Predict the 3D structure of the following.
Amino acid sequence: MDLRTMTYLVVGATFALYVGIAFWARASSTSEFYVAGKGIHPVANGMATAADWMSAASFISMAGLIAFMGYGGSVFLMGWTGGYVLLALLLAPYLRKFGKFTVPQFIGDRYYSRTARIVAVICLIVASVTYVIGQMKGVGVAFSRFLEVDYGTGLLIGMAVVFFYAVLGGMKGITYTQIAQYCVLIFAFTLPAIFISLNLTGNPVPQLGLGGTLAGSDTFLLDKLDQIVRDLGFDEYTTTARLSRLNMFVYTLSLMIGTAGLPHVIIRFFTVPRVHDARLSAGWALVFIAILYTTAPAVAAMARLNLMTTIEPAAGEYLAYEQRPDWFRNWEKTGLLVYEDKNNDGLIQYGADGATNEMVTIDRDIIVLANPEIARLPNWVIALVAAGGLAAALSTAAGLLLAISSAISHDLLKGVFRPDISEKDELRASRIAMTVAILFAGYLGFNPPDFAAGTVALAFGLAASSIFPALMLGIFYKRMNKEGATAGMLAGLGVTLFYVFQHKGLMFIESTRFLGDMPENWFFGIEPNAFGAVGALVNFSVALAVSRVTAPPPEHIQHLVEDIRVPGTARH
């Protein structure tokens, strides 16, 4: 069976599964729409959380980033997994004990302020919209290659699928759909990795194959890769840090606290029956995530090795363009792989020297999707990878869109403008808000500002600088008042957005750049995507300073904070 037909069958079967689950688990109340009726088992919630978390950035982009950054790409591994430790220990159980539906609702009640709640909604929407752009880019990349449709058509199909199971099912439908999506994406990611590891090293365990020797040789895989990239003029794969040690540290920290502050992840812990289950859910989520995250470095290294040895079969010998393999021709059609014969010799020259490098475009987002083709795996494996990439993008997009729609319908409409709205009308408003959010996300997806993981990293910085400090101070510092929290969120978000805009531009539009995206203009050499940790520091500092010069919160709020932290006094 040809690849296109196989891909249609596999992807179509998974889409039918998602829509079928949505009909079976459709929400009939606001509680089911927002928090799945608080009846999800911790293991199931951990699996759904993993799918919610492992977006197109994790499935499609992360291995591609590591493949081209090498050691410098470890910031994504450490930051995105380390954040779950913070989430499990410092936030999840306390927020579940508070017993509300959304993050802005917690902030509004804890800080006894509609203004604080509205500011939290703004922070949530800014971070979530930035994040969802990456998912839409992932959907477009996967569809454009494997279903052989244009980018826009792929986005429209993805939007339609999300509409059916997210608008109909709410959190209840999304949760059970994400469990199915996790099974699809983890199988799709690990199976090709096992095959490729066997081919290259003879070891079926990719994590061990990464540190092992090449099949039939005494040469270690990473030593071979280091040699190849050095010969082509690139930085050594295993030792090159990302810009500087300070930048590596700040970037990792930004991703960690951004993880712990992402609203669409946090609301997953409102769906379990008990406080203890929230901590268990975080633990199970980390286990399920670790399966992919420990495999990604092996996929990255093996993909980079396969890519380079395919283009340059032997040292100093270049492949003739007319003899390029089928996978090369297929990806050229998408525009994500571009060759330019600069010296008219008909050979594909690839190296670090921009003047002679004829591989003028190798989009990092294609690495995972192209890897099975490069390794000449069967068509059904390639089709499965396409389904996995789409599952990753759609699962996270659904969670983000639910967080956005909940903030609009529950926190703004019911919490601020129409407190007396009926449950039926609120549920209808939630679905309308979800529909509008899907349309807006699709609009942004047609103009993606960056490769998927880069955009997602920016979203983490925005969550780190605005939401995380407000939650931490709200739980662990009973003296924190509404003035301090509001000022802190605005300051943290504002300084981060300003830093990003002055270097990268408003959604990467050139006319809004002030200083240019050049390292010599960066604050202590910290790149814009890593600035969230600095923004968080500003947030903490402003919040604490303002709270010290303004009136303390009321006594009942201080008692509420103490009650949240005391074991055995669960709230509902």
